[in-house]
């Protein structure tokens, strides 16, 4: 039914007045003034036209401006739900362990960016080595695999597991052997996993071998004392240290830890008590340890054995044969002096040898027993578990594989195709193995020949543990989820052995809860926080030596005879050694390490043949001449010559760890592989051989960060002998003869309120290891520039370590430091070395500040020299006018230029950057900022906690990494701060203080424990 | 300025017979009003190639960064600032000739001031390109100017010698340009009056409506004098300030109070050498032997001996002071200069700047065009090495021996420098084609009083001392533009 209802909108409609009817025709009730506007008058008014033009002009301009720039699109994905513990800008710290060193990992918004020391870690709480500092970069290495490989094709874990298990079952059915090859495994849980695996597959054996081996010491201890262990060495308890080619401050066993021990007897605190250890070093090549020795005597490799026999005879009065040193009279005299002093310091001295020969180490044991080292400076009862490799077992493995007895082989943290002495023999033998599995993060030399690559995460993504010393356990905990589809090797082994617990995290935890935690009375959470568990150490016992040494002496004499074939010209004794930056080559793709200058030669990105200046003359080679080095087996490599003062005549040295071919962009084909020169005889690896040199006629300039080696008698280096220091603590510091300082602004002094940030550097503590350089690089996003740029002297390091040689004249006994005079010296063997960390001195009268035309570098009220990168136009005037030459210019856009593709030219690796430090663009000057971001963070923390800053609240990155505690940072305005006290020391001087730039970094004199007797040795 | 007869003992400033005002105008405007000859084209093409090289090298630097140069952490300046100081130095002769010699009423300047001033301007342009191109971020070069800005309260650092430099160079450039252009006005008007078509229009605009009436000439003279007064202190100040880039630093070998006078003398030395290099060729190619005479050449050579000797004394003084100071860094810096790895650069500088100019004591040599031309080039090679020695050998081994390094130039370093010479010559050759290379109006002033023909008339008048006449005639021996046989008749 249609509704008849009509709704009216208003009274007007109801009434339907004529006016309403009329209006209702129109859309709008009231007329719009359109007609008025469009009328002649409206159009002709001035205003609308001008308004229109204005609007048009503005619109056009605005649109044009807006269209000028394409706004870059940055995709960012916010946390949907922010994890409770992650606050942007506030770092989190987690304890973990790198190669047996307990460390603290700094993470920012979920990504690890810096390795710091773990203050709870006892022996590791003073510092870390350069490898640990650089290791964070390995996490972000683009050369890593993203998924496991099966027959060189990417696969899934289930397919890989299926394949490996199938092959393992076949192997087991055939009854053939299964071998797990690893470098020394110091993780108790990993060892338990391997043991579990061996239960499931009973033919399994775990073969441990180290590219740089300590089997000699372990075997010698087994022979001498029935304990097949590496002992714990206590350098801190030794007043007299005699080292025969052991680079114990650098690469020998536990460098960062020995550095801390060694320096505790030589640093400022010790000197104030009037005490300083004495250190003799007999060695072939110039090692970091050799550069720190009070007295260093170059000996040939073939003289090492006879020298030890001579020493033994001199100490014990025995008459072992073979102790003739030929014409090395200096060594002879030195050994007599050393023997005398060792006998005077019984129980307070230590003799170590870097040799891997069982006989040599047995003789060293005999010497140490004779001087009462066991129980004091050597502790056999709390052994060092970092190295447990057995060279003979590895050699046997090759035989087993050759005989076709091995059905499956697993490589865990080992790369024998690269670092075995005879890579060809190993490769050939490996081909006879049915199942080859590599646990590696990349296709390295060995993985390339394997059927399966079960990719492993970085330690920063892993669970695990370490047992560095007997009774000293530390935890490895992940700081980030695995970035790629990787799986820990332990977990793979658990899965393949069908273990009851297949989650390695649970496995580690169970293992700890069953063994370590009850013994220490701690909980799992305690360990995750503190990182370490230390059980009560066993008392270190004294040991007696009962073996007859005749056979040992004969063996030593034979080995040295075999080496003594040099003719002093083109046939030389070759020493292959681990270099401090590259070590055994496992981290060769780490650009920070490649660019870390060798502490002695200052060479980056290469290895080289080191020969002494006089040897170079005798052999007719100049620096950088490329020579062919060929040994008796026919192995040959071509390397450039480096002239190394202090290298023994008749010898040459080549570093291991270079010449990787399958490691990644940065590390491939850097230098040459020297592992083929290592030989296996008498049951251990030998790092000495005889080689013949021949010129190639080519030259290859090495990339060195320092090329001038002498300090030209300038008082930038100030040193004194211990004797003089004891008489007068200011000896050599120049503090008795200060010049009067004149100042133009005497009436207008700034009052320095608040903080005044300064530094003190103890030259007697710094060993020159270079760990601080890497720490600084990582902390401050310092670009790596590559070999060619270093060659052009453009490395960007904010902190460098200057290394100067001086030579003692055998006739006058004077220290010769000037290049011109050195050129006339006939004997360059007696070289002294000093390491001087050099960084921005934050001068109060900074010459860089006055010359900058745009005020890009200015002084802060708290004593810092600031650098405003954004203001810098790049005139480089400041760098020219810097007397310390510590300013670094960004010659190119190193982090975003395909020509410098060392590491940072991809988004993944850029995640390593510290977000608190801005990256610098091309054309901008930069330099040490005194870790200003750390100062700010420290100040803010104190402010939030409503307290004053305490001394030690803020630590520089370099200071933190320094195992020797050679760098102390702090507030000069606080008279009780450590740095103030050190700067008030009579040893403190300022480099170039005479030009009155008023540097903020004080250096403390180098003290050498030398006297007329040590001088006599070289006369 | 004339009307009086000049002493017969003075050598003529214009030679030749039957020279009229019209003749002068015709002679000087010959290259401007005619198609260029072959020699010009050859020179121009070579110069243009150089200028192109400069564009390529500088663009390469801008694109890739200063790293394309051979600089390093120790040697932050090398060919760039060497080139900068070298060009600024060369620029000095122009102002000295136009301003100082004007104030001293040395009329012989009238023949050479125009080219010398043009050379100054082009040299300063070359120097200014270095100021910008040596910067790490050249697109921010304007930050060294004290401009009001919105970067906060950022201002330039008035303590920095580079800021002083910026003021000195820009003042110098603007005053020189003004002085040069003011001097050009009557000559441009001359061209305008003789030109037709498009050229006439262009020169009409350029001549600023020069009418040539007495009032204009009077004001012209007044302005010239005022500008000369303003320019004179600049001759001393510019290179003094440039020298302060080094003198106010702390680097041994730079930190030297002798630098300001030594740099100014060196600048005049190199500037006159460059004027000679250019004009000896120009007078031959453009046929201007009558206006740029042996007298001019010899006078400039005398200035070169003087300033070269001042520079030589400065070099020796530096050594003495280094020894006398007892500062080991200073002593080493100087021993290193003469015997270190860059000894060759030092001895190159010594030979070219101190030893070889002494040859000019011999009249035969200083009046020989070939010898003079070669020596003028040698001097500028020496002056380039002087700056190289000061900059590179001081920096490469300063305080801490650990940072000692060598500097090796790259192809870009060399190309920017060689290219800047190309830019300079391109500009100079274009200048020769469009503007009179000799100040026409000013040379005309000399015709009545100081020309050979006016003196000839005086001699013919016969009221002169015979001995003086004989001496005058003898002095004309060296002039290559004077025919001696005509005097034999008298």
UniProtKB/TrEMBL annotation, chain A:
PANTHER family: GLUTAMATE SYNTHASE [NADPH] SMALL CHAIN, GLUTAMATE SYNTHASE [NADPH] SMALL CHAIN-RELATED. This is 4Fe-4S dicluster domain-containing protein. It comes from Pedobacter planticolens. InterPro entries: 4Fe4S_Fe-S-bd, Asp_de-COase-like_dom_sf, TAT_var_transloc_signal_dom. Residues 757-787, 863-892 form the 4Fe-4S ferredoxin-type domain.
TrEMBL record, chain B:
Its main location: membrane. The chain crosses the membrane at residues 39-64, 84-104, 116-142, 162-184, 222-242, 262-282, 303-324, 344-362, 369-394, 414-435. InterPro entries: NrfD-like. The keyword tRNA-binding does not apply. Keywords: Cell membrane, Membrane, Transmembrane, Transmembrane helix. It is found in: Cell membrane. The keyword Mitochondrion does not apply. It is a multi-pass membrane protein. Coiled coil: none annotated. One of its GO terms (cellular component) is plasma membrane. Belongs to the NrfD family. This is Hydrogenase. It comes from Pedobacter planticolens.
């Amino acid at each position: 039914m249609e509704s008849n209802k009509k709704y009216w909108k208003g009274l007007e409609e109801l009434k339907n007045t004529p006016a309403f009817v009329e209006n209702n025709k129109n859309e709008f009730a009231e007329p719009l003034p359109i007609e008025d506007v469009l009328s002649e008058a409206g159009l002709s008014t001035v205003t609308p036209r001008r308004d229109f033009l204005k609007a048009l002009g503005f619109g056009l301009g605005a649109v044009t401006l807006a269209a000028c720039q394409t706004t870059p699109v940055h995709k960012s994905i916010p946390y949907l739900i922010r994890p409770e513990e992650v606050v942007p800008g506030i770092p989190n710290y987690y304890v973990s362990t790198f190669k047996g060193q307990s460390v603290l990992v700094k993470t920012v918004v979920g990504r690890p960016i810096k390795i710091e020391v773990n203050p709870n870690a006892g022996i590791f709480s003073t510092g870390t080595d350069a490898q640990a500092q650089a290791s964070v970069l390995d996490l972000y290495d683009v050369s890593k695999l993203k998924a496991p490989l099966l027959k060189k094709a990417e696969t899934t874990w289930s397919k890989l597991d299926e394949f490996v298990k199938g092959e393992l079952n076949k192997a087991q059915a055939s009854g053939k052997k299964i071998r797990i090859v690893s470098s020394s495994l110091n993780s108790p849980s990993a060892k338990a996993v391997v043991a579990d695996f061996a239960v499931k597959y009973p033919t399994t054996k775990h073969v441990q071998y180290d590219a740089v081996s300590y089997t000699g010491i372990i075997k010698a201890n087994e022979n001498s004392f029935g304990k097949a262990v590496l002992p714990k060495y206590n350098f801190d308890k030794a007043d007299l240290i005699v080292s025969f080619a052991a680079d114990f401050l650098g690469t020998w066993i536990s460098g960062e830890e020995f550095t801390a021990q060694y320096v505790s007897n030589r640093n400022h605190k010790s000197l104030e008590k009037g005490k300083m250890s004495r250190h003799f070093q007999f060695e072939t090549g110039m090692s970091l340890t050799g550069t720190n020795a009070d007295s260093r005597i170059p000996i040939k490799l073939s003289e090492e054995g006879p020298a030890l026999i001579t020493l033994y005879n001199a100490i014990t009065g025995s008459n072992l044969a073979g102790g003739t040193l030929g014409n090395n009279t200096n060594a002879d005299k030195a050994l007599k002096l050393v023997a005398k002093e060792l006998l005077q310091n019984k129980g307070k001295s230590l003799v170590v040898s870097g040799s891997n020969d069982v006989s040599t180490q047995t003789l060293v044991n005999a010497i140490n027993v004779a001087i009462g080292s066991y129980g004091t400076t050597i502790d056999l009862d709390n052994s060092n578990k970092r190295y447990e490799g057995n060279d003979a077992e590895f050699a046997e493995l090759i035989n087993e594989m050759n005989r076709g007895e091995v059905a499956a082989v697993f490589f865990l943290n080992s790369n024998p195709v690269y670092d075995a002495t005879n890579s060809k023999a190993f490769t050939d033998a490996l081909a006879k193995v049915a199942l080859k599995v590599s646990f590696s993060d990349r296709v390295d030399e060995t993985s390339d020949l394997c059927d399966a690559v079960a990719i492993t995460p970085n330690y920063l993504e892993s669970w695990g543990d370490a047992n560095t010393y007997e009774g000293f356990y530390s935890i490895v905990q992940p700081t980030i989820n695995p970035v790629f589809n990787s799986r820990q090797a332990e977990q793979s082994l658990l899965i393949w052995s069908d273990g009851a617990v297949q989650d390695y995290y649970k496995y580690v935890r169970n293992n700890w809860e069953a063994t370590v935690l009850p013994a220490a009375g701690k909980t799992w959470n305690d360990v995750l926080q503190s990182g370490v568990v230390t059980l009560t150490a066993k008392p270190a016992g004294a040991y007696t030596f009962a073996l007859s040494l005749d056979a040992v002496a004969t063996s030593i004499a034979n080995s040295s005879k075999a080496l003594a074939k040099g003719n002093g010209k083109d046939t030389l004794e070759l020493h292959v050694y681990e270099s401090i930056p590259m070590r055994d080559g496992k981290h060769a793709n780490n650009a920070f390490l490649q660019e870390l200058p060798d502490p002695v030669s200052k060479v980056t990105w290469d290895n080289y043949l080191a020969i002494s200046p006089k040897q170079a003359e005798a052999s007719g080679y100049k620096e950088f001449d490329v020579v062919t080095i060929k040994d008796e087996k026919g192995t040959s490599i071509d390397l450039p010559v480096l002239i190394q003062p202090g290298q023994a005549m008749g010898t040459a040295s080549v570093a291991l760890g270079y010449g990787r071919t399958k490691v990644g962009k940065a590390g491939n084909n850097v230098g040459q592989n020297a592992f083929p020169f290592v030989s296996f005889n008498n049951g251990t690896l030998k790092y000495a051989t005889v080689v013949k040199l021949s010129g190639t006629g080519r030259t290859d300039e090495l990339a060195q960060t320092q090329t001038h080696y002498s300090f030209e008698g300038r008082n930038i280096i100030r040193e004194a002998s211990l004797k003089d220091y004891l008489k007068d603590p200011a000896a050599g510091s120049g503090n008795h003869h200060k010049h009067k300082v004149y100042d133009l602004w005497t009436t207008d002094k700034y009052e320095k309120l608040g903080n005044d940030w300064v530094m003190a550097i103890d030259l007697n503590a710094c060993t020159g290891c270079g760990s601080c350089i890497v720490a600084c690089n990582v902390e401050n996003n310092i670009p790596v520039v590559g070999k060619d740029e270093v060659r052009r002297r453009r490395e960007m390091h904010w902190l460098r370590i200057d290394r100067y040689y001086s030579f003692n004249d055998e006739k006058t006994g004077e220290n010769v430091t000037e290049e011109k005079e050195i050129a006339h010296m006939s004997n360059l063997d007696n070289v002294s070395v000093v390491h001087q960390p050099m960084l921005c001195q934050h001068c109060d009268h900074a010459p860089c500040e006055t010359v900058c035309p745009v005020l890009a570098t200015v002084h802060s009220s708290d004593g810092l020299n600031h650098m405003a990168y954004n203001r810098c136009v790049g005139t480089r005037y400041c760098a020219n006018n810097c007397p310390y030459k510590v300013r670094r210019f960004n010659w190119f856009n190193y982090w975003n230029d395909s020509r410098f593709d060392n590491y940072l030219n991809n988004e993944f690796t850029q995640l390593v950057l510290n977000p608190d430090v801005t990256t610098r663009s091309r054309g901008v000057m930069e330099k040490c900022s005194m870790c200003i971001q750390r100062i700010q963070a420290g100040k803010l923390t104190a402010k939030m906690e409503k307290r004053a800053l305490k001394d030690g609240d803020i630590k520089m990155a370099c200071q933190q990494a320094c195992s020797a505690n050679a760098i102390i940072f702090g507030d000069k305005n606080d008279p009780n701060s450590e740095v103030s006290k050190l700067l008030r020391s009579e040893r403190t001087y300022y480099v170039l203080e005479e030009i009155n730039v008023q540097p903020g970094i004080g250096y403390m004199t180098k003290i050498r424990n030398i006297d007329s007797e040590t001088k006599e040795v070289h006369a | 300025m004339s009307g009086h007869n000049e002493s017969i003992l003075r050598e003529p400033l214009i030679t030749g017979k039957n020279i009229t005002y019209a003749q002068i105008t015709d002679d000087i405007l010959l290259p401007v009003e005619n198609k260029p000859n072959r020699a010009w084209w050859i020179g121009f093409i070579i110069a243009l190639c150089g200028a192109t090289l400069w564009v390529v090298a500088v663009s390469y630097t801008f694109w890739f960064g200063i790293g394309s140069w051979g600089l390093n952490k120790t040697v932050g300046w090398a060919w760039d600032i060497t080139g900068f100081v070298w060009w600024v130095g060369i620029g000095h002769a122009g102002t000295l000739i136009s301003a100082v010699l004007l104030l001293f009423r040395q009329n012989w300047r009238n023949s050479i001031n125009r080219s010398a001033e043009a050379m100054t301007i082009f040299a300063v342009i070359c120097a200014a390109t270095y100021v910008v191109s040596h910067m790490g971020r050249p697109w921010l070069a304007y930050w060294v100017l004290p401009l009001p800005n919105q970067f906060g309260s950022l201002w330039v650092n008035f303590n920095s010698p580079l800021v002083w430099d910026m003021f000195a160079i820009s003042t110098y450039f603007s005053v020189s340009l003004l002085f040069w252009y003011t001097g050009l006005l009557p000559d441009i008007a001359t061209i305008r009056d003789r030109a037709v078509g498009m050229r006439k229009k262009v020169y009409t605009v350029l001549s600023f409506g020069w009418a040539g009436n007495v009032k204009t000439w009077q004001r012209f003279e007044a302005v010239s004098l005022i500008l000369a007064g303003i320019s004179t202190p600049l001759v001393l100040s510019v290179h003094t300030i440039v020298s302060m880039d080094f003198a106010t630093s702390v680097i041994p070998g730079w930190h030297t109070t002798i630098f300001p006078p030594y740099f100014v003398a060196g600048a005049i030395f190199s500037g006159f050498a460059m004027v000679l290099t250019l004009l000896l060729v120009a007078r031959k190619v453009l046929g201007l032997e009558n206006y740029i005479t042996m007298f001019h050449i010899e006078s400039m050579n005398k200035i070169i001996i003087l300033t070269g000797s001042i520079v030589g004394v400065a070099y020796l003084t530096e050594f003495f002071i280094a020894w006398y100071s007892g500062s080991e860094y200073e002593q080493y810096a100087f021993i290193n200069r003469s015997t270190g790895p860059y000894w060759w650069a030092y001895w190159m500088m010594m030979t070219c700047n101190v030893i070889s100019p002494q040859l000019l004591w011999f009249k035969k040599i200083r009046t020989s065009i070939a010898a003079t031309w070669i020596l003028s080039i040698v001097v500028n090679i020496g002056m380039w090495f002087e700056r190289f020695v000061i900059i590179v050998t001081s920096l490469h081994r300063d305080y801490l021996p650990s940072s000692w390094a060598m500097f090796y130039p790259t192809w870009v370093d060399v190309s920017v420098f060689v290219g800047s010479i190309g830019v300079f010559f391109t500009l100079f050759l274009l200048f020769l084609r469009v503007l009179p290379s000799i100040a026409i109006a000013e040379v005309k002033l000399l015709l009545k009083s100081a020309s050979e023909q006016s003196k000839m008339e005086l001699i013919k008048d016969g009221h002169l001392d015979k001995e003086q006449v004989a001496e005058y005639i003898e002095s004309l021996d060296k002039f290559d533009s004077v025919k001696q046989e005509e005097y034999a008749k008298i």
